[in-house]
Amino acid sequence: MTGMQTAPYQDFAREKLGFEFDDVQLLITALTHRSYVNEHRKSVSEHNERLEFLGDAVLELVVTDFLFRNYQETEGILTSWRAALVRTESIGAAGQKLGYESLVRMSRGEKQGGDRARLQILANAFEAVIGAIYLEKGYEAAETFIDTHLFKTRINFIGRFMA
């Protein structure tokens, strides 16, 4: 990571997440797509898929816990709601709203890709950021991030199903 500017990542963390990373490399990795590593093999070796894996599990638990504690619906309905909350479109939109797209490191080809591909990359990065927050600050910080950037932006979501 020699010579890489980390300040934009810390600025993003401070302004949008409310804290700085002790290990800013976690955030940088969370925002590094596999295609970028393929183009920069000599200088970059890690992409966000492992953090995405972790963040996906944390996201699933937080959403499941939220639905379980706040709604008395049957398992099938709660499962449907959870699936809708964590789908690519929902978390990709949350990522767009956070505004980290300019920080996502991806290949030139991916940058020129279509809207659907970009939304998928943003959704994957959202999960990876959750994983990075979980490792850096713990479960409660990850839960707060999800509450702020997914639940509060989707507050009318469940009401539509209940109507």
Uncertain segments are none
Tell me the total number of β-strands.
Answer: 0
Taking the sheet with the most strands, its summary is:
none
Apparent shape: globular
Portion in helices: 55-70%
> How far is it from the N-terminal to the C-terminal residue, by CA?
51 Å
Q: How many structural domains does the protein architecture include?
A: 1
Our estimate of the beta-strand percent is under 5%
What is the name of the CATH topology? Ribonuclease iii, N-terminal Endonuclease Domain, Chain A
Structural class: mainly alpha
Instruction: Give the overall average pLDDT.
Output: 89
Radius of gyration: 16 Å
The CATH architecture term is Orthogonal Bundle
Under the CATH scheme, which class? Mainly Alpha
Question: Strand-and-helix sequence, N→C?
Answer: HHHHHHHHHH
CATH-level-4 superfamily name: Ribonuclease III domain
The total of helices stands at: 10
